[in-house]
Design a protein that fits this description.
Elements: H1 2-10, H2 22-31, H3 34-39, H4 41-45, H5 54-67, H6 71-102, H7 104-110, H8 113-118, H9 125-145, H10 151-166, H11 176-179, H12 185-210, H13 227-235, H14 238-242, H15 246-261, H16 269-277, H17 279-282, H18 302-320, H19 325-351, H20 353-369, E1 375-377, H21 384-393, E2 405-407, E3 425-429, E4 434-437, H22 442-452, E5 458-465, E6 470-476, E7 482-487, E8 490-494, E9 497-501, E10 509-515, E11 521-523, E12 527-528, E13 547-553, H23 566-569
Parallel strand pairs: 1-2, 1-3
Antiparallel strand pairs: 3-4, 5-6, 5-13, 6-9, 7-8, 7-10, 10-11, 10-12
Amino acid sequence: MAIGAVFALYGNSLQLWWCCDDPAILLHAQRYAPLEYFTVPSAWRALIPFSLTPWLSLAYDLDMALFGYEPRGFFVHHLLTLAGCAWLLHRIAARWAGDAAALAAPAIFLVGVPVAQAAQLLMVRQYLEGLLLFLLAIWWAVRALDGGPRPLRWLAALAFAAAITAKEVFVPLGFIPLLLPIGRFRQRLAMAWPWLLAMALYVPWRGHMLSTLVGGYTPAADIPGNLFGDAVAAFATVPAMLWNAPLVAFAGLGVLAAAAAWRHGKPPGALLLAWAVLPPVWLLAPLLPLVRFPGLSERYFIIPWAALSLGCALALAHAWHGRPRWVQAALLAAVLAVVVPAWLQSRPVAQAALPGNTLFRAIGSAYLERDAPTAIWGDPAVPAWFVQGLEHLRPAMGRTAPPPLSVADESDLAAYAQAPFPQPVLRYNNQQQGMEDIHAEIPAMVQRWRERLAPTELSVDVGYDAYRQALEWKLAAPAGTSFAVLSNGTATAVPGQGQLRMDKQPQGCFRVRVTHADGRLSYSPLLAWPAASGPAHTAPAQGAAVARTRWAGPGDLFKDAPTASCAALTGRSSPAA
């Protein structure tokens, strides 16, 4: 039943192609053995330097062994994992709620926006498989406490240990066995101690693999500043992410909670406490480092959403029996008040999967099927690491010739304004939903681009601190402008000031593009990325400065072509005064 529901809701995911982080994860799983990315810091950090989720690479490794580089097989595995989560939610809820009321748990879970988004993104497999392993651990723990076979308690502990290698958010949930309303505390403690041991061992393992305990993209030392205000503002937007009518959903949740709390008799108090009160702390606290950058996304809430779904089913069952029919009708209406707004919010997300993936399929296929000297004009929605991952995967897919060139801006073509571009240039056409050759249009495009160029006062200050492993920048231009960094044939929109964790400093050169409100464009000259200030994780000497690249001036109008080469600039970054 769970499998049928998942494929009915999200079966269109089987038509999707690679997206986003997929090529980078495929490349990582191809280059390293499981033992390496579970135990060797440099092997794991080659993928993600500030989060520890090696189970993600293991999942891709397994799928590559089964399906090669065919994404359809990956998505079959993906949706089966989602169905397993829904089935386990029902089985866990049925222990206290009975089979009928327990159906509310998978029903609410499967129509949620976090699930709709996760169903179409292979790169969030760590959330789904981590949830599957954790729910399996809970189910086995419940069965063991109910008098099941003794090996179940060890299987439960192993499943929990595997879950915390999938995603950090499961680590604090190791206390859950102590709160299950089954048996005596001594029995629950006997069940829980291997979980607590896994939690304790996780800390040194994480320290060994990452050299830090705090995850996220923002340097740990910079997280506390005004974090409370930023977190309140960010989490205040979450209800509108999850429901198209948040007030209606909150009313339904309120009715379920009040009816369960005022029910006479023996309540499953500890379990309700574990799933309805503690998740806001245990499940949402790990999201705090993400509040500022990259910001909260729907998929980050798949685990809190599962907890909410389970809590609703338990509350419904606890409040149902022995109540008048009008109360039972109100309880059903409360469940619908949670389900229907979630369903209406998630439908557009699920329906947008295929159109949104067409861009990735078209550009990605071009990188795999074409060779140099063909050039491919990038799209702002396609990140640089997607392209770079595909370029590195080409040999494994049988393409040994040099990959296509990458173009992200007319400044890359400035030398060719007076003559036809010497090779095909492929760009995505939204109307045709495919790639088209625009090389004959290049001279006219560059001429129109030159007419938009305008001098403006611009300052660029970029630094890399190897000790903090952070790239920081401050860009200044007239009010009402936006910034993008052009580097290695890609364009990345950035705020005027910020910092980002980076395990290694960027290589080569970059240019800052300024877009004015009226469409005019200004550029910095080509600049070299700053060199590292010292060995990573080695405290700098007193007064040592972060290595910096600084420039200020009226901007590059590209009067001379070709512009300065990166090879001539590399290594010229100057230390801060």
